[in-house]
Amino acid sequence: MWEAGAALVALVVGAAFAWVNLVTSLYPRTFFVLKPWTSRSLVIYSIAYGIIAVGILYLIHYTNLVPKTLIEQVTFGSIWLTAIVVGVSVRSFFQINLFSVPSAQPGQSFPIGIGTLVGWYEPGLLRDIDDDEFLGVRSFLEPLVNKYPDPTEIRKRVTYHISRRRSNSEKLAFLADLNERLSNAQPGDTQALMPAMESALEFLGPRVLRHAFP
Q1: Residue 85 parent element (H or E)
Q2: Fewer CB near the last or first residue (10 Å), C or N of the chain?
């Protein structure tokens, strides 16, 4: 029974940590648009890492593929702590070779590890997640652009809501980018205004942007 419980812990921790790590590292300002019901690929990505964590846990317990000495020092031999550590640090086990396949050259083989297996499916999922984030941001910003269709008004509101704690170099770089994006925008031109609002969202963050465009 403890094995099933530890496997469940590894699954949940591995999936949750994969989710949080991905959205906070790649989408620190727009992670709020990625929800389980808006990004099936993110759900699959996270569950896949949870399943890998379960596999690593069993490799540690039943095989010699993973050195046990260091893990036991960190987890004090507890299978429950091991499950948590594995779930949090799945990527550190990617160098483990599971098996080898013969290569074209006689006497040589090509190792297949956990990282190799992940490399087969992860890039496609990351592209799909990126698309989900893009569509989510557009859905979030479209009502604001429709409510505030004047580029001059957008520039004024965004500029007013830049924190005084931002460095001058940050402010100048952002305002130059914003002005460039708005330079050819005409009132009501949603297609031209959207990139400027996306830039403002990335710089100000969702909470400040909502305050700027109530």
Answers
A1: helix 79-88
A2: N
How many residues in the chain?
A: 214
Q: What is the pLDDT of residue 200?
A: 92
* 30 contacts 136 by C-beta, under 8 angstroms: yes
> Which tokens is 79 given?
């299978």
Neighbouring C-beta atoms of residue 93, cutoff 10 Å? 20
pTM over 0.85: no
β-pair partners for 101: 110
Closest CA to 193 of 131, 143, 132, 130: 143
Q: Which two tokens stand for residue 156?
A: 């004024």
Span 175-209, pLDDT tens digits = 999 888 888 878 878 888 899 999 999 999 999 99
How does pLDDT run across 43-101, given as a tens digit for each residue?
999 999 999 889 888 877 777 666 665 566 555 567 788 888 888 888 777 666 554 55
Under 8 Å between Cβ of 187 and 149 = yes
Residue 92, token pair as written in the block: 């550190």
Share the mean pLDDT of the chain.
83
Residue 104 predicted with pLDDT over 90:
no
- Which residue ranges make up each domain of the chain? 2-129, 148-212
Residues 6+ apart with CB under 8 A from 37: none
What's the token pair of residue 74? 């960190």
